[in-house]
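As the next step, I wrote out a protein sequence along with its fold in token form, included below for the reader:
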Amino acid sequence: SSGINAEYGESTATLTYPSFDVFREEKCQGLIDSLDNIREIASLLLQLANPTPRDIEMFIKLSLWGNKTDLSLLKHFKLDLSDVQSASVDKDNDRILSNDLDKVIKHLTSLDGGKVDIVLDNSGYELFGDLCLAEVLLRSPHVSHVSLHMKSLPWFVSDVTEGDLQFMLDTLTGSSDECLSKLGCRWKERFSEGTLTATHHHFWTTHAGFSQMEKLCPDLHNSLKSSHLILCKGDLNYRKLVNDRVWPHDTSFSGALEGFKPAPLCALRTIKSDSIVGCGTGVVEGLIKGDREQMFCGTYALISSNL
């Protein structure tokens, strides 16, 4: 047992098979297929006893580009992570069309034992990157608690559920690789001691935009008020943040949130749909004109904040 403290919200979906995950086999295989890449990251992470701001930046980018590994966009569920990992360590990545990373690092490094919430997206490699980011933050003096927010039931193809998190931890701790096993055991310890927690709520699997959260789910909204930074992962969470509207691309991210601000917030998203804000005039239009398919397959990204 990992000691995961999961809080169940009331489900709005079917009550017949609420825990059945039709994509579980593919999700598990996706993690197994990425183990070679994961070993490299685990080895690097375990060497970071006192992470620097540059280290935090690198693992934020790892978390960001991990969002490209969405099973719904991957043919035959085969992963090629070489470009994902190279992008994550490339300091000046011109594929990040709106980049508030400097603001996010400045905010994080101003904290003293703060709390960070991560609203998760995909399982497998991306979840591993999110856990690595949580670990780097917890190893710094700036953060003392990271809360992960999962889906309460299987929804889209590779969304993280409690079963996916458990499979991740069990796979790592059961590995013959010393780095993977050590990291898996460390994360289970963090769940047991409470510095790392995982919860789920039915709001994450509703149609509602985030601006409706306070009205529809005041309990969740109130819990997020205690956060010093909310990191929202992925394309769908981004779309719900901006209420799934096709805004003019130069609309400010804060304006598109339409009042949603329980705490400081940052979206880490690779672009897979056409709800895009916070970009310079003509930038997105030019890229779409050049290669529309490339524009919406995770090649480009956004790091958008209300800081």
User: Anything to note?
Assistant: The mean pLDDT is 84.
